[in-house]
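Researcher: I'd like a structural prediction for the single chain below. Treat it as a standalone chain; there are no partners to consider.
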Amino acid sequence: NEPAARALDDIEKQLVEMDAILGDLLASARAGLADVRREPVAIVPWLEQRTATEMAGRVDLVVDGVSEDVTVPMDPALLGRALHNVLANAWAHGHPKDEPLVVTASATEEVVRVVVRDRGPGFAPDILPRAFEPFVTGTGSARSPGAHGMGLGLSLVRRIVEAHGGRVFAENVEEDGKTTGAIVAFELSLRPTT
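Model: Treating it as a single chain, here is the predicted structure.
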């Protein structure tokens, strides 16, 4: 019958959410990250593969002056989790499902920068300076209907990136005096760090 099927669907959705929350909690607990296993990884093919495997929506990758052979010393599984969390956060906080998220990779001689640009409502002014702190969550228009979370996704991103000697940042995108989305980005050194 239909009510029972709906109840089972709701239970399944809640189990998927709980699994994601527990995954973040476990990853966060492990993220003392003393055992980061770095290896030289060609960043452009890695980003192509990682963005192609995202199931929640389309991701467009823009490569801005980064050649295919640029390598970054990194733990590809951990950084894959970080990138996934940034993308999932954008979808959970109002990025339109029918529009692709845009991931841009650029580099200087020192660092590679990966920027995720969304078209959601942006960060609330009181949230923005604390976006990467644990248990900070967007509310109201900053959350998509049905989105739940404990505010661990971006804090885990910061821990992973910092364990690689990198840095994270977030800012709202302003166009014609109004917020038209946000960027969440991380930078990684092109040289091995200790």
